[in-house]
Amino acid sequence: MAKGMYLEHYLDSIEGLPCELQRNFSLMEDLDKRTEAKKAEISELASEYIEKVKNLASEERVQHLKKIDSAYNKCKEFSDDKVQLAMQIYEMVDKHIRRLDAELARFENDLQEKLDSGSQDSSDEKQSRNKNMKDKRGSHARDKKASDQDSPKQKKMKNGPNISESLLAMHPSDVLDMPVDPNEPTYCLCSQVSYGEMIGCDNSDCPIEWFHFACVGLATKPKGKWYCPRCTQDMKKK
């Protein structure tokens, strides 16, 4: 449900609340007036009883005390009614507060579901980009393999494998975290796919051929011929 709908429904539910509160407050005000009137009546009856008690007969005394007791009971009745109205007002307002809390909880749940859905969409979009990147790398590998088959005796290109510009711009760790096509060829001492800047070993019999700069401790391409660590060690043995 949209945010506007939650607000609209809640406003509809409390539309009559001000009138109900006003009615109950008016009744409470009327009870206050009637209670004050009874208190004044009790005060007058008490004063009259004290003033005339010596001259009243026993039956008259009893009747006078009954009037005072009746006024007290009526005053208590008004007070009880006022307490009941106060409780009704509290429950009325509390009911709307509880409903507001429930509506807010529902709105927060809906909002969280939308956020979770948005995160999932973002994750799906990222996976789609990774898949596209993987397809590009696989296409590059197939192109390179075809090129190697057409020229088996040619030396590898000086600029390394035909790496796409998007891979060159990526950090090596980003590439390694991407899903890899099991059919894609791997290179270097790390046995990973091609990415970033690479250098080819000048030994035509080198089993690895291409190496990542970082894996062989290079920051820039060296001048002259370059041999990988394995080929260098093999040549020293000879």
Automatic annotation (TrEMBL):
Belongs to the ING family. Component of an histone acetyltransferase complex. Interacts with H3K4me3 and to a lesser extent with H3K4me2. Component of an histone acetyltransferase complex. Pfam families: ING (PF12998). One of its GO terms (molecular function) is zinc ion binding. Residues 112-160 are annotated as: Disordered. Signal peptide: none annotated. Residues 185-234 form the PHD-type domain. Zn(2+) 1 binds at C188, C190, H212, C215. Residues 123-153 have a biased composition (Basic and acidic residues). The PHD-type zinc finger mediates the binding to H3K4me3. Gene3D superfamilies: 6.10.140.1740, Zinc/RING finger domain, C3HC4 (zinc finger) (3.30.40.10). It is found in: Nucleus. It comes from Danio rerio. GO terms for biological process: chromatin organization. Zn(2+) 2 binds at C201, C206, C228, C231. This is Inhibitor of growth protein. One of its GO terms (cellular component) is nucleus. Keywords: Chromatin regulator, Metal-binding, Nucleus, Zinc, Zinc-finger. The record marks Y187, M198, D202, W210 as: Histone H3K4me3 binding.
